[in-house]
Amino acid sequence: MSHIVALCGGVGGAKLAFGLAQVLPPQDLTVIVNTGDDFEHLGLHISPDIDTVLYTLAGLADRTRGWGVADESWNFMAALGRLGGETWFNLGDCDLATHVERTRRLHSGETLSQVTAALARALGIGPAIVPMSDDAVRTVVSTTTGEMPFQRYFVAEQCKPVVTALQFAGADAAHLAPTAAAALARSDLGAVIICPSNPWLSIDPILAVPGIAAALAAGSAPVIAVSPLVGGRAIKGPTAKLMTELGLIPGVAAIARHYAGVIDRLVIDGADAADAAALPCPALVTPTVMAGDAERIALARAILKWVL
Predict the structure, then answer these.
(1) Model's pTM, two decimal places?
(2) C-alpha Rg value of the chain to the nearest Å
(3) I want to staple 264 with a disulfide (CB 3.0 to 4.6 A). Which of 19, 210, 222, 247 is the partner?
(4) Structural fold of domain 3-42+49-61+112-135+167-307
């Protein structure tokens, strides 16, 4: 079996990563995860997208909320609120343990890659889960009300401000994580799959890390993106809103243009089948809405059958 690399953001990307993990042998899948959303909060290193992928692949994710751990309790946040602490970013009691352990390991000298691998092993996850970089890259959102860190825009402001531009602070000086670089350089690399994560907020930070775009361009393996839009609408998150604010018409054509020069093929939902012929790259039309495990696995199988 050829090795598969998935580029992944949070909830939507994690769903496809789960499907791929059910279909592929563990040693044949590497998931490279966005860390542009990472930030320090209450003295802890928070890695929201990495944790969403970890919890999803471990079967621990809260499927109702779409983030965090299922059956979570909130005693810590309640106590923090009574003390007048910051409560705008929710940390459940079980989730809090992940951030405490990550921060402890980072302070002891481990890299984010090493910490992530250790957490994945502890949770019984077989595929390699890898941060895009061990260096700090932080998404900064420029809005009509000023610049703000990503989590302030996404959580505290609930994506309400109008976005005018995005920056990935630290990207120019960052290095691709060693395990990620090794996966992309494998002689048996069969395909790189860009999961249905927000192209601007979740995938662009990964592509901004020096070396990864060159590795994708230099490799012989096809690069396939899965559109996060269905019928011009996002299943979850601010993708369509963001596109409109950046002067784009939400739809698969804009997704294809955004990834021009990076991808060889695009996966789109049947709701967008009429647009397939006009796309600048070959398209696979297949159901992309992943309501449950069966749909996640079916999409993973359809993509793998198409490219391998």
Answers:
(1) 0.96
(2) 18
(3) 222
(4) Rossmann fold (3.40.50)
**What is 242-254 written as a DSSP string?**
HHHHTT---SHHH
Spans of all domains in the chain:
3-42+49-61+112-135+167-307
Write out the chain's pLDDT in tens, 308 residues.
699 999 999 899 999 999 999 999 999 999 999 999 999 999 999 999 999 999 999 999 998 887 899 999 999 999 999 999 999 999 999 999 999 999 999 999 999 999 999 999 999 999 999 999 999 999 999 999 999 999 999 999 999 999 999 999 999 999 999 999 999 999 999 999 999 999 999 999 999 999 898 889 888 999 999 999 999 999 888 999 999 999 999 999 999 999 999 999 999 999 999 999 999 999 999 999 999 999 999 999 999 999 98
Degrees (nearest 5) of the Cα angle 119, 124, 129? 55
